[in-house]
Amino acid sequence: EDQVTQSPEALRLQEGESSSLNCSYTVSGLRGLFWYRQDPGKGPEFLFTLYSAGEEKEKERLKATLTKKESFLHITAPKPEDSATYLCAVQARGNNDMRFGAGTRLTVKP
Amino acid sequence: GAGVSQSPSNKVTEKGKDVELRCDPISGHTALYWYRQSLGQGLEFLIYFQGNSAPDKSGLPSDRFSAERTGGSVSTLTIQRTQQEDSAVYLCASSLALEGEQFFGPGTRLTVL
């Protein structure tokens, strides 16, 4: 069965303190791995899609990387507005659904 | 442009009542998904529609849950004889195709008393 595990559950950083969020997955044939950001009371907002091991994508202070077993979301010099829950999801070949992790709740203090 | 919209934003109902939740996907998006997000939990897939194909209902938790999509656009998720464990945020998402990022609506927060 496809599984997605995110760690840590919660992360508190000082503004400017870089760190990484982890997404470990098991899937029978990866179609894509997705990162989303979710603010309280809102639906998830798409950040990145990664399709194959070795792929990297960047957007502002965020950089996502992918291996055959896990993905990292690196946050460089975060700001308070980066505070949110970050969700990872995988989609397997032949499946219609996406399997989501429970998320990492990030708090960046000024 | 207009994103995915959902209504109502909040719904409080009594145990045993039926509820209908509505989703308006982004125009032109052929794929539509329903998810459920319970407090502190990840998103749980419920059902998927792609064009005119038969929906993938593999995620529906019981036969009290059903969904339809009329004219390949608007979708309605119906929960019959609601139970307290149905309380959650119900999220709808749409995408251009099966492969590709999903765009989410703001969700409907359902509370069953």
Question: Could you explain how this protein is built, in words?
Answer:
The complex is a heterodimer of chains A (110) and B (113). Chain A has 110 residues and is an all-beta fold. Chain A has strands at 3-7, 10-14, 19-26, 30-38, 45-50, 56-59, 62-66, 70-75, 84-92, 99-100, 104-109. In chain A, the strands form two sheets. In chain A, strands 2, 4, 5, 9, 10 and 11 form a six-stranded mixed beta sheet that branches. Chain A has a five-stranded antiparallel beta sheet with strand order 1-3-8-7-6, with no helix packed on it. Chain A is globular. The model of chain A has no long low-confidence stretch (mean pLDDT 94). Chain B is 0% helix and 47% strand. With 113 residues, chain B is mainly beta. Chain B has strands spanning 5-7, 10-13, 19-24, 31-37, 43-50, 65-69, 75-79, 88-95, 103-104, 108-112. The model of chain B has no long low-confidence stretch (mean pLDDT 92). In chain B, strands 2, 4, 5, 8, 9 and 10 form a six-stranded mixed beta sheet that branches. Chains A and B meet through strand 4, strand 5, strand 9 and strand 10 of A and strand 5 and strand 9 of B.
